[in-house]
Structure formats: structure tokens, C-alpha cells
Amino acid sequence: MALPQQSHVEYSYADYISWDDQERWELINGEAWAMSPAPSRLHQAVSARIFYALFDHFKDKNCEVYAAPFDVRLSDSPDTKEADDTEITTIVQPDISVICDRKKLDDRGCIGAPELVIEILSPSTAAKDLKVKRVLYEQHGVKEYWLLHPTDRIAMLYTLNQGGEYGKAQILDCNDVLTSEQFEQLRIELTSVFIDE
């Protein structure tokens, strides 16, 4: 994928929405990141299973669950909703997003931090998900960030503490039951999420 040609280095959402629909990008602090080719079968199987578990849990509640491709626009503006397209320089497409504040939803996706973001690790995106996006989601106040590793069959859960930091991840293996600090009744048996290759 060739980077869309612009006369400046820092891109915004206004640039992003003008690019070719056939290519998927994320913007992180104005820097364009090409999305990898179609995910592996194992990635998609884990994604489908965790999405179904979350969709089933939230179906009678106020939260909405969305799977990629789904744009999440993040802004450093105190009122993200008021930021115009040229001021938003971070747009990500998490594998799964849970949004409980419906005012953050519009026809273009979500504007502001979801309550929960899940990324499913693959070799081409693992470094970005583990380092760059963890810092990004922490800075923007994503209350819980889960990383699922389909091959190793482990989950890493980050939860914002009172100081607005993630701290150390909780590590779970495929035999554990995933529980959420934010959503007290949410319980997911990881044996139902992770599959044998």
C-alpha cells in the first residue's frame, strides 16, 4: 500500500476519509499506519468467539459491541465531540470495541474512548498493539484493554487505576475464566474463545 500523497506530514481525519476505500489505515498522532492484509483464520475464529460472548452479555444492556472495521476517533481536545475533522489525528480500528455512552456513537463510528477495547494479536501487529496502542488507550482513558494471543492462547487484561494508568497486566491462560473489573457480571470462559489450531 502506498501512503496517500499529502503536502504535510501529520494527517488528520479529514485526510483519512479522503483516502481509497479499498485500503485500510489507522492514524496514531497524525502518523499513518497501514493495516495488515486479511487476518489469519485463527485470528478471525478468536475474534468471532469473543465478539459473540460480549454481544450476548450486552444484548439487554446499554452498551454496544462493534467489530472491525469500525473507526474510533480519539482527540486531545477536552471535548472530543466538538473537535472538527482536521483536529482529530488519531483514528484506530480495534478488533472489538464496547461503547456504553451512546452519545459517542455516530454514523462514522465512535468519537471518544470506548469503555473496553480488545485487540487480537498477530505477528504483523503485535508490537503496535502491545506498545503503541497500550499507551494510546491509556492516555485516552479506555477503561479496559484486553489483548488476546490466539497462538499462545493467553489473554492480557489492562485496567485503568485511579491514577489513570494501566499498571501491570493480568495474565490468563486458556483454562481461566475472564472477568472484568468494570463489568461485574461479565464472565467469559476462555476455553470457549481459544481454539486448537
TrEMBL record:
PANTHER family, sorted: GLR1098 PROTEIN, RESTRICTION ENDONUCLEASE DOMAIN-CONTAINING PROTEIN-RELATED
Provide the GO MF annotations for this entry: endonuclease activity
**Domain Putative restriction endonuclease intervals:** 15-187
Q: Which UniProt keywords apply?
A: Endonuclease, Hydrolase, Nuclease
Please tell me whether the keyword Nuclease is annotated for this protein. Answer: yes
Q: What name does the UniProt record give this protein?
A: Endonuclease, Uma2 family (Restriction endonuclease fold)
Fetch the InterPro entries from UniProt. Nuclease_put_TT1808 (IPR012296), Restrct_endonuc-II-like (IPR011335), Uma2 (IPR008538)
CDD domains reported for this sequence: DUF820-like
